[in-house]
């Protein structure tokens, strides 16, 4: 159980737009209404020096078919940094939002909704007026322009988009603090059968593993052509009821432009497919999960692995950054997609959302740590309520050791800090448990609920077997010391694909440490991270050379060998040789 009890988050009512709470976010709704032809509802959700704006324009005049633009002038120093569902440009204080190409028309009484992120300083006062295709929006079809309303009604949430409707399901506040506590986990029969097909597999096959909803077809279930299972979401929920399980774990993993910094887990949706993500993926999942039949099951959703951290560290201009990550940052597809998923799924009383927060070997540096927490908050705010996030998960499908007893950030060797070693490379953290606990504290400090809990994926971070150090090295040379003492035996901490030498980690356990809701097996052990050579497939999966054992690396793994196992199938597909290795190197041993 987490040490800090869940408590209701209370916001002090802000007297006017621009009042900033010391911590957390203040949401302020302002409606600016004016003359013939259009009405604008403008609201912001702001924190420290940043804010998310949400704009809905209603065309009260004649139908518009050839495109629209909405213009306003900032009264202060606000700057738009990123927008979605419209192209937003700014020149000085003047801003123009233009329709997306797929929504050029606006019928009479039709609405368009878009959002943006921005920065501000001093005060964040709403624009005094807006024009739609040059017409001042007065909020009515006739009459003289009235001065836009500046009344503010502080609220704890804003509605992120017109297509997100408030749910009528049980309020999120009825959720238990730790959904893993005292509950039996669902054992996925498809994974269990694969595990038992490998010699010795029955020793671990009764552990709960997550069900990955990795494409639209996985919701209904497939004909067996999927690389990792054919049961649909309902099939799994029904099987969970039949097992008498207390909780079931899903991974929501199908964002537009998925896996923008790598190729092995690219998905079916293109970078501009946010509307499809919402309508064809999240909505149907929410419809199934909210079925009253399942109300006594705790349904845990792990939300979108690697997506938000990729926007912090893997855009172009950064070592190994990609154009696809630039695109997904610019079009808001990840932030809005995650926000939408959180909103829809978080509204269901027995559903628990845990957002993926990468791992220490990715965001453990100060330069990544704070910005990642901030973007998590943006996505949560885009969902309308930070309480849609029950917690976070680290190390999903990664290999970072849970503890590094001999290599702590404070350890010194021959007068040098281990942080100076090539392996640690100035990271503030050396293991996953310390990192997850510290990141939890950071997330609460930026505005998340103080009751959030962390999960750590321990499915493949055991590093047991004969190569596991049992004592600290006696070397006084820092690199030698670290390399001889570390539990994580990877060639480089940036390696992530089918790692040679890895073992099963801690078995799934509820409330194992302060701030940690559970150790979980989210990546089902034995399912591949990616193919070691190019394999054609119909799932959108690419060939990433980080999965090729002969690859000598790139900027993100310090130009080292990939450390990947040979003969691997595509990501998600069963890889028996890997499963055998994971059992052989399990820690604790089987
Ligand atoms: C793949 C998914 C798969 C998951 C679990 C990911 O790397 O892209 O398709 O469901 O791993 O094995």
UniProtKB/TrEMBL annotation:
SUPFAM superfamilies: Carbohydrate-binding domain (SSF49384), Glycosyl hydrolases family 6, cellulases (SSF51989). Belongs to the glycosyl hydrolase family 6. Residues 143-174 have a biased composition (Low complexity). It comes from Actinoplanes flavus. It holds the Pfam family CBM_2. Transmembrane segments: none annotated. This is Glucanase. The keyword Lyase does not apply. PANTHER family: 1,4-BETA-D-GLUCAN CELLOBIOHYDROLASE C-RELATED, PTHR34876. Residues 1-34 form the signal peptide. Coiled coil: none annotated. The lineage of its organism: Bacteria, Bacillati, Actinomycetota, Actinomycetes, Micromonosporales. One of its GO terms (molecular function) is hydrolase activity. The active site is at residue 259. Residues 31-140 form the CBM2 domain. It is an enzyme of class 3 (hydrolase). Its EC number is 3.2.1.-. Keywords: Carbohydrate metabolism, Cellulose degradation, Disulfide bond, Glycosidase, Hydrolase, Polysaccharide degradation, Signal. Residues 137-182 are annotated as: Disordered.
């Amino acid at each position: 159980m987490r040490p800090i009890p869940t408590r209701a988050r209370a916001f002090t009512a802000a007297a006017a737009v621009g009042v900033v709470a010391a911590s957390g976010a203040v949401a302020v709704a302002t409606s600016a209404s004016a003359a013939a032809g259009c009405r604008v509802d403008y609201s912001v959700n702001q924190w420290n020096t940043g804010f998310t704006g949400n704009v809905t324009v209603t065309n009260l005049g004649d139908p518009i078919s050839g495109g629209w633009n909405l213009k306003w002038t900032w009264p202060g120093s606000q700057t738009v940094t990123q927008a979605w569902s419209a192209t937003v440009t700014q020149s000085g204080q003047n801003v123009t939002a233009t329709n997306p190409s797929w929504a050029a028309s606006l019928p009479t009484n039709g609405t368009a909704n878009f959002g943006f992120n921005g920065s501000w300083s001093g005060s964040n006062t709403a624009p005094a007026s807006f024009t739609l295709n040059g017409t001042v929006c007065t909020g009515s079809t006739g009459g003289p322009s009235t001065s836009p309303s500046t009344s503010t009604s502080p609220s704890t949430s804003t509605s992120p988009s017109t297509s997100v409707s408030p749910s009528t399901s049980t309020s999120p506040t009825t959720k238990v603090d730790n959904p893993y506590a005292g509950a039996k986990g669902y054992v996925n029969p498809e994974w269990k059968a694969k595990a038992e097909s490998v010699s010795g597999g029955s020793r671990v096959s009764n552990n709960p593993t997550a069900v990955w909803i990795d494409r639209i077809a996985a919701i209904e279930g497939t004909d067996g052509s999927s690389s990792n299972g054919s049961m649909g979401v309902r099939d799994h929920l029904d099987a969970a009821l039949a097992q008498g399980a207390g909780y079931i774990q899903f991974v929501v993993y199908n964002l537009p432009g998925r896996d923008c910094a790598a190729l092995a887990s690219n998905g079916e949706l293109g970078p501009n497919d946010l509307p499809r993500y919402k309508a064809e993926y999240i909505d149907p999942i929410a419809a199934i999960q909210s079925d009253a039949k399942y109300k006594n099951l705790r349904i845990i959703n792990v939300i979108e692995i690697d997506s938000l951290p990729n926007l912090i560290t893997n855009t172009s201009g950064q070592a190994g950054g990609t154009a696809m990550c630039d695109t997904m940052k610019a079009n808001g597809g990840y932030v809005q997609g995650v926000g939408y998923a959180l909103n829809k799924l978080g509204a269901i009383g027995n559903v628990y959302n845990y957002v993926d927060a990468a791992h220490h070997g990715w965001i453990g540096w100060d330069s990544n740590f704070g910005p990642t927490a901030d973007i998590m908050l943006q996505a949560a705010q885009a969902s309308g309520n930070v309480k849609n996030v029950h917690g976070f998960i680290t190390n999903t499908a990664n290999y970072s050791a849970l503890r590094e007893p001999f290599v702590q950030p404070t350890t010194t060797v021959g007068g040098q800090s281990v942080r100076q070693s090539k392996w640690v490379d100035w990271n503030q953290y050396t293991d996953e448990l310390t990192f997850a606990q510290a990141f939890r504290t950071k997330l609460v400090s930026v505005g998340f609920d103080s009751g959030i809990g962390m999960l750590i994926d321990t499915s493949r971070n055991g590093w047991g077997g004969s190569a596991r150090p049992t004592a600290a090295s006696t070397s006084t040379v820092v690199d030698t010391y670290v390399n001889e003492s570390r539990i994580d035996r990877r060639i480089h901490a940036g390696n992530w694909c089918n790692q040679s030498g890895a073992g099963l980690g801690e078995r799934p356990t509820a409330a194992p440490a302060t701030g940690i809701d559970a150790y979980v097996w989210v990546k089902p052990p034995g399912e591949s991270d990616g193919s070691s050579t190019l394999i054609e497939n119909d799932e959108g999966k690419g060939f990433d050379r980080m999965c090729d054992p002969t690859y000598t690396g790139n900027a993100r793994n310090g130009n080292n060998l990939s450390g990947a196992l040979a003969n691997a199938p595509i990501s998600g597909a069963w890889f028996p040789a890997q499963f055998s290795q994971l059992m052989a190197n399990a820690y604790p041993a089987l």
